[in-house]
Write a structure and sequence with these properties.
By secondary structure, the chain is α+β, with helices and mostly antiparallel strands. It has helices at 133-140, 144-212, and strands at residues 19-25, 31-37, 42-53, 58-61, 68-73, 79-85, 88-94, 99-106, 118-126. Strands 1, 3, 4, 7 and 9 form a 5-stranded antiparallel beta sheet that branches. A 4-stranded antiparallel beta sheet has the order 2-8-5-6. The chain is elongated and about 105 Å long.
């Protein structure tokens, strides 16, 4: 598993809702988030970086040259995305493997930092919530009814993907439980055999001792 100086784990119980938050980082700090995502699901990440201003005690917009490096890894620890972005942007990727995806952000430039603190606003949208329906309606020239039908179709598809993902998780849990049960069974059996063997050896040893002392 990935090792980082500072890792922030965010688990979503319901995947269809977006996650909006902000966090603070230092110059060498890396923040990572875990998203449980079904396969073939679009994920949209919106972020904005602000720099702490010690004169006002607040946060201000950073210089255009300040950027954030974003990387995404799938459950098999394969890199889906890894590149440098500006101080404010939108990142989109599609999952191809169901499971926990790790999204990490950090700055690759420390010269401008001077020990100041960054505030990163982050919003993660999964599934149909990552689709820009206003842009689709304008591009495809959909009516309100057609757009609503398109939204309902996307929602049904997302629900199907989530149900498949839940079945996948249940199967993984069942396999883990069966594997644990087998390990416990064989460990208990081994302990019993060892105890029986030790008991028989001790009995034979005591019998030989008593015979040598002519006590029996």
């Amino acid at each position: 598993m990935l090792k980082y100086g500072s890792i922030l784990f965010v688990f979503l119980c319901i995947l269809e809702y977006g996650t909006g938050l902000y966090f603070h980082i230092q110059n060498t700090e890396r923040k990572c988030f875990i998203e449980e995502i079904p396969d073939e699901t679009t994920v949209l990440v919106n972020y904005k970086v602000e720099l702490y201003d010690p004169r006002t005690g607040g946060f201000m917009l950073t210089n255009p040259g300040v950027g954030m490096h974003v990387s995404v890894r799938d459950p098999d620890d394969k890199i889906i995305l890894s590149r440098m972005y500006s101080s404010e942007g939108r990142i989109s990727f599609t999952s191809h493997v169901p499971g926990e995806h790790v999204i990490c952000l950090h700055s690759n430039n420390t010269s401008w930092f001077s020990g100041n603190q960054l505030r990163v606003h982050l919003e993660i949208q999964v599934g149909e919530h990552a689709i820009d329906y206003a842009n689709i309606a304008q591009k495809e020239k959909f009516s309100d009814l057609q757009l609503r039908i398109r939204q309902l179709i996307d929602q049904v598809e997302q629900i199907t993907k989530e149900q498949n993902y839940q079945r996948y998780r249940e199967e993984r849990f069942r396999q883990t439980s069966e594997s644990t049960h087998r390990c416990v069974f064989w460990w208990s059996l081994t302990q019993s055999i060892v105890l029986l063997t030790m008991g028989m050896w001790q009995m034979r040893h005591l019998k030989s001792f008593f015979e040598a002392k002519k006590l029996v």
